């Protein structure tokens, strides 16, 4: 399953997508430590897989929370994406 | 602060008089506490038996109890007869008498699969304060989803702001938006606050209320389609939530997608609670076969 | 020769006239339904202060969201360009400019000559702009000035859950019903918006000195919240912060080169 966390508003679409099939295969979830804001958390999803999700408090302000890793001059790599070896994480912006 | 009159849901319940719960092996319930309304569904051996819809109050556990009481009203059932209860909705974690909580996304998909059948693949749910786009498989298992509850523009609340502005009852918006001679382009602002100013300017320019409604419904449809395309759209397409009643937005969405939404005799409002009851049924089955 | 800068903001039209490198007149009117006519009216109002006419004008440069609608403009420049130019003219030490207006917020990094190095924009969403504060003032039934001042009287930290002006309105009403004071609500509103503006500023990074311009710079409650959120006490706020865009536009006009943007 692809779980998309974030929102769409007048200024654009801002979603972090987690491919839970790939994520479930990963034991240590390095993304949790990699994110400087600690936005990821481990959950047991509705289909009983142990995967990560974006913490609920961050989902509605995701554009602002991720801003430090995405400066105006553009970014080359993001710590969460770099850390995820199953390549389960993508950002829509 | 004005009363939110336009979103007053009617409270109701329904029961199948031909079914007898005393003969059922598995009695399962699902409760969906939403921001505006709450539903409770009772199923007997995986078949729909009774349900209720009430307005959510300020307290989630109370709303859940009220919905449940309303659903079992007149059946002779008590809570003790129910083998398993699954809670869902944004208040799902606050239902003390539920055995388990499952997300509204998973419950919605399961419920739509029951109501629309195994061919349902794409589900749109737009409620008072959020909008969900869900892709599921033939068993109603979620493959892809997103939920937008940050921005009012894609929600019933966004519609309510325009209804207030134009003093049009919200139930009339859809039909009136279709009573225009032409294809009216969408208002240029996504943001409801700015769209409201834009609507006022259009009225000053001489636009009729119907034309402004058309422009607003077109904008909402385009927005919703953008969200749906993120999970990718496939037949069959199923719509639930308050938006299903807005024919103006529904028709425009269908036109943009080139796909017609499934018609259903079921009250799509109960999709979440129904899915929850199905999860409850499955859990009981599993527990009994493991025993 | 007089050079004019016209800032066609979402709400207000601001005009600045420059002669021999000095600001000689200014005017501000509420934008009307006919943008072309409103622009002319604002310009006329400024020219009247010098007993001058359209014929005394050299270049007329427009900026702001409605800049392309000004038919009397020689050319237009983006807000970002005009903001940087105008701010550095008034305060040469500034290298970072924050501009928050009715419908848009911007953060700009610039050099000593007012040229833009980098910028970030919060646009098309009321939550990141002045409209947010205005909507909340209406929700608690206070005048904007009163609402802004009330924020300074609170020292509570109440985080807001809603990130949308429409949902925040409902949240504010609930807070009122649960007995939260208007002062505490006002601070919560200003803090919430300040944190969004700060996140935008961090995308360009802060190089001292920092200036804050635009209509919302006149809101003392927001200024305080922003200082706290950025962790910077010394933020330069020009007198008439909402005129800086028009100043920049007029200056660019006086430079004698046509630069359409």
Structure description:
- The complex is a heterotrimer of chains A (93), B (291) and C (261).
- With 93 residues, chain A is an alpha+beta fold.
- Chain A is built from five helices and five strands; from the N terminus they run ββααββαααβ.
- In chain A, the strands form two sheets. Chain A has a three-stranded antiparallel sheet. In chain A, strands 3-4 form a two-stranded antiparallel ribbon.
- In chain A, a hairpin with a 2-residue loop joins strand 1 and strand 2.
- In chain A, 43% of the residues are buried.
- With 291 residues, chain B is of the alpha/beta class.
- A six-stranded mixed sheet of chain B has the order 1-4-3-2-5-6. A four-stranded mixed sheet of chain B has the order 9-8-7-10, with helices on both faces.
- In chain B, helix 2 packs across helix 8.
- The radius of gyration of chain B is 20 Å and the shape is elongated.
- Helix content of chain C is 39%, strand content 23%.
- In chain C, helix 3 packs antiparallel against helix 6 and helix 6 crosses helix 7.
- The radius of gyration of chain C is 19 Å and the shape is globular.
- Chains A and B meet through strand 1 of A and strand 9 and helix 6 of B.
Radius of gyration of chain B: 20 Å
What structural category characterises the helix and strand content of chain B?
alpha/beta
Alpha carbon gap, first and last residue of chain B? 56 Å
In terms of quaternary structure, the protein is heterotrimer
List the total number of helices of chain A.
Answer: 5
**Main interface: chain pair and counts:** A-B, 19 and 26 residues
* Biggest pleated-sheet summary of chain B: 6 strands, mixed
Number of helices of chain B: 8
**Tally of DSSP β-strands of chain A:** 5
Which outline of chain A best applies?
Answer: globular
Quote the beta fraction of chain B. 15-25%
Q: What order do the helices and strands of chain B follow?
A: EEEEHEEHEEEHHHHEHH
Weakly predicted, low-confidence segments of chain B: 1-7
Strand neighbour order, sheet with most strands of chain A: 1-2-5
Bin the strand percentage of chain A: 25-35%
């Amino acid at each position: 399953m692809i779980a998309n966390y974030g929102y769409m508003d007048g200024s654009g679409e801002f979603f972090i997508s987690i491919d839970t099939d790939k994520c479930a295969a990963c034991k240590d979830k390095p993304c949790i430590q990699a994110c400087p804001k600690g936005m990821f958390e481990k959950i047991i999803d509705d289909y009983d897989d142990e995967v990560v999700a974006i913490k609920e408090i961050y989902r509605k302000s995701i554009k602002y929370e991720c801003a430090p890793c995405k400066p105006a001059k553009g970014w080359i790599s993001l710590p969460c994406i770099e850390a995820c070896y199953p390549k389960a994480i993508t950002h829509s912006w | 602060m004005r009363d939110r009159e336009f979103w007053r849901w009617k409270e109701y319940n329904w029961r199948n008089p031909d079914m007898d719960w005393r003969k059922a092996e598995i009695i399962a319930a699902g409760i969906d506490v939403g921001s505006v309304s709450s539903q409770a569904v009772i199923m007997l051996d995986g078949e729909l038996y009774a349900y209720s819809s009430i307005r959510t109050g300020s307290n989630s556990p109370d709303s859940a109890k009220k919905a449940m009481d309303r659903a079992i009203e007149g059946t002779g059932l008590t809570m003790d007869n129910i083998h398993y209860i699954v809670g869902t909705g944004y208040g799902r974690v606050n239902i003390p008498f539920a055995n388990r909580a499952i997300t509204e996304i998973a419950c919605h998909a399961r419920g739509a699969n029951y109501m629309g059948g195994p061919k349902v693949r794409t589900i749109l749910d737009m409620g008072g304060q959020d909008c969900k786009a869900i892709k599921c498989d033939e068993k109603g298992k979620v493959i892809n989803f997103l939920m937008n509850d940050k921005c009012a523009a894609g929600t019933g609340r966004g519609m309510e702001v325009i209804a207030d502005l134009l003093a049009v009852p919200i139930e009339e918006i859809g039909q009136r938006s279709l009573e225009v001679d032409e294809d009216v382009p969408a208002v240029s602002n996504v943001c409801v606050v700015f769209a409201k100013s834009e609507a006022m300017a259009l009225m000053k320019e001489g636009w009729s209320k119907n034309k402004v409604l058309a422009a607003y419904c077109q904008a909402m449809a385009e927005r919703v389609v953008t969200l749906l395309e993120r999970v990718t759209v496939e037949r069959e397409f199923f719509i639930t939530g308050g938006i299903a009643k807005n024919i103006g937005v529904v028709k425009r969405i269908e036109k943009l997608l080139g796909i017609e939404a499934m018609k259903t005799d079921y009250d799509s409002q109960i999709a979440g609670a129904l899915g929850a009851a199905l999860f409850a049924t499955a859990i009981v089955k599993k527990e009994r076969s493991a025993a | 020769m007089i050079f004019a800068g016209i800032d066609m903001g979402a709400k207000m039209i601001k005009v600045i006239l420059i002669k021999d490198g000095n600001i000689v007149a200014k005017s501000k009117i509420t934008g009307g339904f006919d943008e072309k006519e409103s622009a002319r009216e604002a310009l006329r109002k400024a020219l009247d202060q010098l007993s001058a006419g359209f014929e005394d004008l050299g270049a007329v440069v427009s900026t702001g969201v409605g800049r392309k609608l000004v038919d009397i403009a020689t050319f237009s420049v983006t807000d970002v360009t005009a903001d940087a130019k105008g701010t550095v003219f008034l305060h040469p030490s500034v290298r970072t400019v924050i501009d928050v207006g009715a419908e848009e917020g911007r953060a700009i990094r610039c050099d000593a000559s007012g040229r833009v190095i980098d910028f970030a924009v919060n646009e098309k969403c009321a939550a990141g702009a002045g409209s947010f504060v205005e909507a909340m003032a209406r929700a608690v039934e206070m005048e904007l000035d009163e609402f802004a001042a009330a924020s300074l009287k609170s020292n509570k930290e109440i985080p807001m859950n809603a990130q949308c002006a429409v949902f925040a309105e409902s949240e504010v009403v609930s807070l009122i019903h649960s007995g939260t004071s208007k002062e505490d609500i006002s601070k919560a509103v200003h803090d919430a918006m300040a944190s969004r503006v700060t996140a935008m500023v961090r995308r360009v990074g802060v190089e001292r000195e920092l200036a804050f311009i635009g209509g919302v710079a006149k809101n003392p409650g927001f200024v305080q919240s922003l200082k706290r959120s950025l962790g910077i006490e010394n933020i330069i706020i020009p007198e008439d912060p909402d005129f800086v865009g028009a100043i920049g536009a007029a200056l660019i006009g006086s430079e004698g080169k046509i630069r359409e943007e």
